[in-house]
Design brief:
Residues 101-443 form the Peptidase A1 domain. By secondary structure, the chain is of the alpha+beta class. Helices cover 13% and strands 30% of the residues. The strands form six sheets. It has a 15-stranded mixed sheet that branches. It has a four-stranded antiparallel sheet with strand order 17-16-22-23, with helices on one face. A hairpin with a 3-residue loop joins strand 22 (378-382) and strand 23 (386-389).
Length: 526
């Protein structure tokens, strides 16, 4: 039986200053989960508070203590980086699979393979399971070397349904009993696109980058019994791997148990291949910018762009907030900024406008393999003189015989105030999502294996003769990836608040030091 010793709720410290006369300071300490603290909290009396003595209360205290120990002592994680047991490779199959990037993962015992889309705009890992309404899982042999998988929790010896009483069951209040399996229902940005079913805990198989063999990690999986919208029309037919900030995401589980650092990286090559690594924080020489909160919470990987630049001209009042979303194939910016960037691009490019049937992009131009014009650079600038040069801001257009006929500015407008940086603008970069420090890092890369990737020039090379790839449909041009906020699969955004202490008299510093020294928690196990 475990006993938890807590610091007394009220403590009076007497501090004596060695000066001409003595000074006494009395400080009242209030426990952060007390009724008094509840009233003063940001959410006031309505703030969700763990009941004193409950399991949630002690779990919260323990989680806080472990985080303090990590900050104080530094954590030795078990592995430098992990990747799916089937390999770190990612790839895009173009129009056949909705222009998203995918990787193979294995889950369950015995293990079953799934081809899941990579989505940093949502949290939950879900796969087709005990299907009522799912996409067809056969007929893809022209694109794949094996069949897509179907998950059945009853056939996995390591699976267990998540009860409605679990802290990550967001829809638990709709359950009739605490032990009932927890339902989930996520609506995504694309119209009528959703996944629903039950939450299950099971094993996911991973491999260590340091060659220490296979690892089985417990993760929460959405048993996706019913899908709709884009998920029935080619996007993610075999499931989706949510990589968001929520506690239910795979990166959260891997870092919480100390397997790897709380980060992951993705690299997309220009030939539609790439890599994913859990625990990778990027390289020391990378540039970085901090994530910014949405409505005061860190829910998505959102960055603050100071200005958008075309060629050598940076447009005034072109700042925006943008979601870095691997689940979006293309890039979207608010209408007013889209128009200004497009007009400046049109002014600088030395080519005649063209209209290609079936292409959804507005600013398209004629060209040929022997007469490809210089393409103006497109750059996003950030604070502290940092910038993100888009490697290839165009989408090539091909004729009926597969010959290069022209190109389009691969940028689209959105009515949202939030821009979306999709996979096409991430191409050619090693992108590190540092969740622990709430930073996005990027460095130009050829996307080789972790530790062997070579640096490449910042200036993108011209590639007029890309292999032919079918056009995205109009629906696939819309951003499919991130879940509508709030997602209903148990998102628990991490808050990062800092506090500062005003500099007062010298004796006050002594007292504050003593207060810090008294913060402790004692555990005994009997």
């Amino acid at each position: 039986m475990a006993y938890l010793g807590l610091l007394a709720s009220v403590l009076t410290l007497i501090c004596v200053a060695q000066s001409s006369e003595s000074a006494t300071l009395s400080l009242r300490l209030v426990h952060r989960f007390s009724d008094e603290a509840r009233v003063s909290a940001p959410g006031g009396a309505g703030w969700r508070w763990p009941s004193r003595g409950s399991m949630a209360y002690y779990r919260t205290l323990l989680r806080s203590d472990l985080q303090r120990q990590k900050r104080r002592l530094g954590v030795r994680y078990q592995h430098q980086a992990l990747f799916p047991d089937e390999g770190s490779d990612t790839f895009s199959l173009g129009n056949d699979f909705g222009w998203l990037h995918y990787t193979w993962i294995d889950i369950g015992t015995p293990n079953v393979s799934f081809l899941v889309a990579l989505d940093s705009g949502s949290d939950l890992l879900w796969v087709p399971c005990d299907c009522i309404q799912c996409a067809p899982l056969s007929g893809y042999h022209s694109s794949l070397d094996k069949d897509l998988g179907m998950y059945n929790p009853a056939e996995s010896s390591t699976s267990r349904h998540l009860p409605c009483s679990h802290e990550l069951c967001q829809l638990g209040s709709s359950c009739k009993a605490d032990k009932q399996p927890c339902p989930y229902n996520i609506s995504y940005y694309t119209e009528n696109t959703y996944s629903s079913g039950l939450l299950v805990e099971d094993k996911m198989y991973l491999t260590s980058s340091d060659g220490r063999g296979s690892i089985q990690a417990s993760v929460i999986i959405g048993c996706g019994r019913r899908q709709g919208g884009g998920y029935l029309e080619g996007m993610a037919p075999d499931g989706l791997l949510g990589l968001g900030l929520g506690e239910i995401s795979v990166p959260s589980f891997l870092s919480k148990v100390g397997l790897v650092k709380n980060s992951f990286s993705i690299c997309f090559k220009e030939d539609n291949s790439g890599h994913i690594y859990f625990g990778d924080e990027g390289v020391p020489s990378q540039k970085s910018t901090t994530f910014v909160p949405l409505d005061g919470k860190y829910i998505y990987y959102i960055i603050e762009v100071d200005r958008c630049c075309v060629g050598h001209k940076c447009l005034e009042q072109s700042g925006l907030q943008a979601l870095f979303d691997t689940g979006s194939s293309f890039t979207f910016v608010p209408q007013d900024i889209y128009k200004r960037v497009s007009l400046e691009f049109d002014k600088q490019v030395n080519a005649s406008r063209a209209d290609f049937d079936g292409y959804p992009f507005e600013y398209c131009y004629k060209s040929s393999p022997v007469a490809m014009p210089d393409i103006p650079n497109l750059t996003l600038t950030f604070a502290v003189n940092k910038s993100f040069l888009v490697v290839d801001p165009i989408f090539n257009a091909y004729g009926e015989q597969g010959q290069l006929a022209g190109f389009c500015l691969a940028l689209q407008p959105t009515t949202d105030i939030l821009a979306t940086i999709g996979q096409n603008f991430m191409t050619g970069y090693h992108i590190a999502f540092d969740r622990e420090n709430l930073k996005l890092g990027w460095s130009r890369s050829d996307c080789g294996d972790l530790g062997s990737s070579t640096k490449v020039p910042l200036t993108p090379e011209k590639q007029p003769n890309r292999p032919e790839n079918p056009l995205p449909t109009t629906e696939q041009q819309s951003s499919p990836g991130h879940a509508v906020s709030p997602a209903e699969a148990g998102r628990a955004p991490t808050g990062h608040n800092s506090s500062a202490v005003s500099q007062k008299e010298p004796f006050l510093h002594v007292c504050l030091l003593l207060l810090l020294m008294t913060q402790f928690t004692v555990f005994s196990v009997g």
